[in-house]
DNA sequence: ATATCACAGATCGTATACGATCGGTGATGG
DNA sequence: CCATCACCGATCGTATACGATCTGTGATAT
């Protein structure tokens, strides 16, 4: 009875399959998700596919219109703003709530990750940088004792995944600031800072990324009218 | 073309039907939601019922287990704590984000509601009190320009609805404090206070209710061992 | 040329059907 | 008498089927 064959439901199968295709860019924002197509591709019926799509809808990765169908969520600038704002809120809280449960070993691990991020900057590896960024923050918020808040954080990151590498590639120079701010957060955690201080710093870290993005967009817009 | 007959989907029908039964207490926490039963009661097939249940699951009103079925979510003390903590977070933020868009008329309206709440205290009408409490806070957060955060607030309140009248009935005396704190929040809004100040005050308002509840439980537990 | 309408193909929403899985009950053995 | 196992009914998960609805295209009228 060592390893039982885990029978995952077809719904689960469709869910992860679609999510993967959205994440890796096969299905770009706006792409129409046709039930019959996906069902045939996965060799399942439309029912579980439909269910999977509605799950993705509830996570905001997909939009759904009655009697029309589903498509990969469009992430315009406003949508990005909403997501980042929400994530700054819940991630800040999750980090603060995690703080009391974070060990010195965790902080070491985070610091190692942050150093790898610096290397990515030097070798210009935006994709790996983004991956490491998630790993870094995961160390900081995964100990959050409130599963609801933790779930919201995961959903927020899930949405961002649709705009892969956005942090890094869209606003040059921001990544460099980012790793410095990471160190700042770590030192707050090390010195056992006040919960609110940690929350606000973690929140500000993300807010600054958002602001940098908006500024950058604004500037680009002025340069090329 | 004045009023078209709005054809709501059977899924929508099942969704609201079940949600209502959960809210009004017909389906108490732990009640097993059997697909076939509900389908027959509504004279629809199991497919839309299933979809409705999964929607409710994603809102946390229902728990679902593969190959076993669904039941109305159990709200033990821990679950209540998680929900209140999350709601304090998102509601605080929503209130702060709404602040710049709140008019003097809105504040008047909120104050009127708060006065009605005081009357409820005198006539001991907990049910109406709870209703008004939602109305009061709605005035404060409904102008939130971030729809994601607003949605999270609605979901949080939705979860609380399962434990109706909890604030009022479970912890005596707290309701009286509550209306005073409402006035405090209103005055912050009137004087155009700092966004963070508003957020933290709105957050603390809810946190205090949670703390009062936990204290009260603790005390009851000691009295009756 | 533009607007309106009707039709056709594609796709969705839901009913029905059936095999798969779970939980409980009674028989069997210790 | 208690533990284990086999069976059965209840319920779930998913395939298939079909009517309902939407979107786009081409014909017609202004």
What does it look like?
The structure is a homodimer of 225-residue chains. In chain A, 71% of the residues lie in helices and 4% in strands. The first copy, chain A, is mainly α. Chain A has two domains: 63 residues, Winged helix-like DNA-binding domain superfamily/Winged helix DNA-binding domain (Arc Repressor Mutant, subunit A, Orthogonal Bundle); 147 residues, Four Helix Bundle (Hemerythrin (Met), subunit A). The first copy, chain A, has a three-stranded antiparallel sheet with strand order 1-3-2. In chain A, α4 runs antiparallel to α7 and α5 runs antiparallel to α6. The first copy, chain A, is globular. The first copy, chain A, starts with 9 loop residues before the first helix and ends with a helix. The structure holds a DNA duplex (30 and 30 nucleotides).
CATH C-level category of the largest domain in chain A:
Mainly Alpha
**Overall pLDDT metric of chain A:** 91
Percent helix range of chain A = over 70%
Percent of residues in beta strands of chain A:
under 5%
> Pairing-aware structural class of the strands and helices of chain A?
mainly alpha
Sheet with most strands of chain A: 3 strands, antiparallel
Total domains of chain A: 2
For this structure, what is the CATH homologous superfamily of the largest domain in chain A?
A: GntR ligand-binding domain-like
Tell me the number of strands of chain A: 3
SS field, number of helical segments of chain A: 10
- In sequence order, what are the helices and strands of chain A, one letter per element? HEHHEEHHHHHHH
Largest sheet, spatial ordering of strands of chain A? 1-3-2
Categorize the overall geometry of chain A.
Answer: globular
Oligomer: homodimer
| Rg over C-alpha atoms of chain A, rounded to the nearest angstrom | 19 Å
- What's the CATH topology name of the largest domain in chain A? Four Helix Bundle (Hemerythrin (Met), subunit A)
Distance between the termini of chain A: 66 Å
Report the largest inter-chain contact. Answer: A-B, 21 and 21 residues
